[in-house]
User: Fold these one by one.
Assistant:
Number 1:
Amino acid sequence: MRFFLFCALALAATAQPRHGVRPSRMVIKNATVVEGNGTPAQSPVDIVVENGLIAGVGRVQPQASDVVLDAKGKYVIPGMVNMHGHLHDERGGAPMDFNYVMRLWLACGITTVRDVGSPLTKTLQTREKSAKGEIAAPRLFVYPMLGRVRDAAAARRRVREVKAAGADGLKIVGAWRDTLAATAEEARALDLPIAIHIGVEEANANHAIAAGVRTIEHWYGIPDAALKEGVQNFPSNYNYMNEADRFRFAGRLWREADPKLLAGVLDRMVAAKVAWNPTLDIYEASRDLQRAQTQPQFKDYLHPVLEDFFRPNLENHGSYFVNWSSTDETFWKENYRHWFRAVRDFASRGGLVTMGDDAGYIYQMYGYGFIRNLELHQEAGFHSIKIIEQATLNGARALGQESKFGRVRAGWSADLVVVNGNPLEDFKTLYPGRGIEWTIKAGIPYSNTELMREVKAIVDNAREKK
Ligand SMILES: [Zn+2]
């Protein structure tokens, strides 16, 4: 009897977190914490998690009934905010289990995703299930895609439909100046923030800023608004609809931007509080195709449907690598150098820089592409402490949620990533199977090992069927 009691107490004192099960109270002991607000790491710190929230940050003696996560020698950062995700359930028309996408995001430490275009009804249902903790998924903000509409009246109608469906915001792709202005005005009245993907078109970044968008995605519209001639120096046989043309010459756009005009565009963005979500990972194949095609995680984790979709084929968006040359790569490497500098200039002027993976295109896998962004922001010259802030709290800021999640602070949602390694030294520790041990979303711990085992099972199953 005495022996039994001793065992029970010992077990209770060392109750471990369980994959996908929200404990009533959990204490993360002896962590090294990066808060996510741009301040350096602190250690040792204990974090109390209760009812999905961070109840306290400091030094705590766990109670016998607490679940205890020993984080001695480990880093804890806020759950990351992916500001440009697509919750795909197919690629090129072939179905793909979207649990694959959600588990990869969680395994990469992503606890919030702003979805900017996916099957609307399904994604809204997933948002609710995720909010209730019924499924393993990041918290979702749903910004359905608004493609080109014929006129202002149609634009307004479409905004009202999207609002009635329950969207959190709006993603604009392709707009004329008049339809953009009408869309933005209607969206403002209905309190729907706008993420805009600006292609090479009539409305550039200056028009988007004036219309009052919340974030500019990717980049093209920004240098495009800084061209002295008002148009890039395209060859006469250029066809924008041909993706090989489009992406080849996009690689020669930044070099044509006039530095003074560009500074003006960046200043206007800062003044209007327009955040920049550059998604640096998603064009990287353009500067180094072989690197993109031979990423080590493809062996075990690349879904065969995604694999097919990535193959060069002008029918599939982003699979434009037809006769891709060293000359193209060289232009793109230079393009990236200008782009890096512009993002840094924007941030140093006070602009809000966020991060998003845009995965499911151009050899980028969900989550992995997001972590690659942290590396690329480092290459751009940002300090790793600021990069963690860009990947966490800045996303929450751009979503207007900075008092709810995105930092390790009492009262904020318990969105936390426990890393066996120092991400401030090496962002590669954040890739699945490397350093992340637990991703905690709203107090629910998810084991990296379990998540990746599930991902592998989905991939193996799909490969067998093929
Ligand atoms: Zn996208």
Number 2:
Amino acid sequence: MKITKIDVSRPECAPSIPIVSAVAHLDCDLTELLPYLNATQEKAQYFPNHPYLRFMWRGYNIVVERNQVRVVPFVDDQAAKAGASEVVDLIREIEAKKDEITPDHTAYEPPAVMDILKLLPKKSGCGKCGYPSCMAFAAALTDGEVELKACPELERDSVPREYVEKLKELLS
Ligand code: SF4
């Protein structure tokens, strides 16, 4: 498994935001490896019909799809290239141990967006999470694009703690 190139980019809608993402392009298709990643990575989300797999590792949000590994977030281009290479190294390790791993073909079933939305603070448009509305944030949460901690409003005393716990449970 070789990296043919690594692209780095910033969000087009907000180029000033210091979040850099990386896409490592590989010389092989990783689709057959996805159930092995699903078996070894805690809370991995496997979508066999697309097919792709999402997981978190060392604070990185990672998507593996065909011959690409997408990794976010980084503070600059150099960190993005180094981080993407580290993630590919992890995938190489799993591939090397494939014969010792029982593949997990279980598909991820995301929670309903509305179930998430009704537990959010509903300050539509405050945008502190980086999304234009709680609805957009809820959709991103169910897709695994973002973590709950990105909404600072959930830390307010006025937000019932049981709502936060329920959100964590739904997204686990
Ligand atoms: S920061 Fe929280 S309250 Fe504000 S839009 Fe995002 S999800 Fe809604």
Number 3:
Amino acid sequence: MAKREEWQLELGRNVTRSEDLDRIIALSDDEKTAIAELSDAYPMKITRHYLSLLDPGDPNDPLRRLVVPSPLELRHRPGEDEDDVHADEAQYQPCPGIIHRYPGKLLLIPTLACPAHCRYCFRKGRKVSHLSQDESEEALEYIRGNESIRDVIITGGEPLMLTDEELFYWVSSIRAIPHVEIIRITTRTPIYLPSRITDELVGMLAEHAPMFVIVSFAHPREIVPDVERALGRLADAGIVLLQQGPILRGINDDAQVLKEMYEKLASLRVLPYYAIWGICAPGAEHFLVDGHEAAEIIGSLENRTSGFCVPHLITIARGDKVRMMGWSPDGERLHLARRDRPSASAPAQVHARPETHHK
Ligand code: SF4
């Protein structure tokens, strides 16, 4: 059996049991109930690294709310099953592991494994699985056969949960396809498990440039020295780093918090790309920020920081990824501007609750 790497050993020390977490951050009775009741549907999983960032004395610590199950997750909004993102994605799935919604690019999902479970994630409740060898070949064959595909977004789950060998299989196979220009990897792994960003991994990714790594920070306190070093290794190797992440109530729905996070990331060569509004996975309504409020927060960053520290505010409406623009203090001029579908027509009003996507 192959020797396990440090990051794999660290994953084996993840906190998944209420009693273990209680010894570290003193759980409330409500949290213990939520952990027990969600143990099948969406179990708690927290890396030791991330746990070390939590403030044990603050029951409302934003970082705690990102990873510790809450009784609010047990509430369900009427009609939330009708907004099933997975059913929507299934319409664009030509074969297992591929979601091809837009011209020119597609999502490749080789694994649904994650180093930790974010409580807001819209993929919550999906059973962890990896593509089989046959499914992997079928997915690659689909990309090979579609010459319009110039951008492959490897997502999940978390692609960096694959071993170096598995990841090499994917990136080298994709890089060998002449019409694919860009490979992107979307991930929160450098935040949860910075030890995963080894020299070997970075070297292998850099060999397959142009390579974009899209990270998903939610709060400036996630940017600690181990994480800074991991990002630095990726940037030094010539990998393009971008930030895209959701705006979440009680976590980062505050212009000062976001400004601090985006400025810190830019100084580490990670440019803010998308801020995503409309996160509302089942049982995650408590994270949802009002659309006008989200637009005002991002709009207020304009002229308060470098232009490249202000991301585009986007959402997903009726299946399209769209930019939200035209913000004003009274919210009257807020519109959605279609972006990703060249053939799409007039802007639409923002009032319809959007579906959720953050990759
Ligand atoms: S955001 Fe990423 S790391 Fe978090 S649960 Fe979702 S897929 Fe996993």
